[in-house]
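Q: Could you predict the 3D structure of Trk system potassium uptake protein TrkA?
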Amino acid sequence: MKIIISGAYAIGCHLARLLSREHEDIVVMDTDEERFSHIGSDVDILTMEASSTSIEALKNAGAEKADLFIAVTPDESKNMNSCVLAKALGTKKTVAKIDNAEYIAPDLQEFFSQLGVSKLIYPEMLAATDINNGLKMSWVRQRWDVHGGALVMLGVKLRETCTILDRPMREICGPEDPFHIVAIKRGDDTIIPGGNDCLQMYDLAYFMTTKQYIPYVRKIVGKEHYVDVKNVMIMGGGATAVRTVKTMPTYMDVKIIETDEQRCERLNSILEDEKALIINGDGRDLSLLIEEGIKNTQAFVALTGNAETNILACLTAKRMGVRKTVAMVENIDYVSMAESLDIGTIINKKSIAASHIYQMMLDANVHNVRFLMTANADVAEFIPSEGSKVTQKPVKDLGLPVGMTIGGLVRDGVGLLVSGNTMIQPGDSVMVFCHNVNMKKIEKFFL
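A: Sure. Here are the predicted structure tokens for Trk system potassium uptake protein TrkA:
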């Protein structure tokens, strides 16, 4: 597959490294040669110092025969214009990163598609969705809903209150049980569990279940004492904070702490219709946090542009009794450190955006590809076509690659957990969880 990436910034560099693992033919374009050094010398790609709004440069990059053109520079207009040019030259699919919430309205998708922009990516909105999913359930590190919650994946940190520790999987989640454990993150290792594997204290376990059994999962993992989130404190008033507040459930009350006075005035204007109190101050100031009621706050969300600040602020909030903390960590090198410090949910916008772009390079009917940084694994929703390999035999006889498991499926709007005897049907939405498996290898089962 021929892929062109415009912009060697955070998302572009991350995508180049991610896609190079698939051994794709990749060209990265940027007007500043120094930015290419952020990709790394060990990545097998071609770099081109040129503007993606130049027709000649696009031709030299191979846009006339490219399968996918990805524009992820900080300039929204440049991204969209270069997508229009690439599509006109013959590129099959195009993706543009944007920062205007108006453009992502569902009724505008066809409009932009006709212009030549196949897909729009708004990282702040994607991050806000993940943040709010986490806030809705204070006891969960990560939540992923499929088909409006017909199937739900929950990432849960296990403590001493968990009732299913140290027991083989075959005893705790058999074919008749209302959940499957599809993966376990233990220290630096990710485990796709078999029947003899056991859960241990401090594991991050990924449960696949249906919406009606979420309370049951909450009970067995010993999280019933966690209070639901009502009061939220956000440190940092950037675009991600704005999108989070605008899409937050109405029953939540939120305070935003922002150091810049002019930005506070702007936030008051942007969020005048929301239940948000804007506070001019430093979220690292303990006296300010106490004054603003941190001890009566159920969730603390750190969204400044500095990863270290966000991590330290969440650690402080934890020490002051806040159960649910969320930290935006844009430096991927810090993600494992943040996880080891047990600060709570970690948000990385470039990883979230890359996951959504990644699914466009697959030929199968696939939706909602997500890269789970903490588990170093991928989860995706595949829809098998008529006659595909995955529909020919029971799951246990499919010969699935090591490191891949099927957690569940949605059929006619109803979520179903999958056992070895399950027969998958064409049109099912099938949840696939994989670790160290090429996604191209997996999609062959669904074509």
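Q: Anything worth pointing out?
A: Residues 49 and 271 are 41 Å apart (CA to CA).
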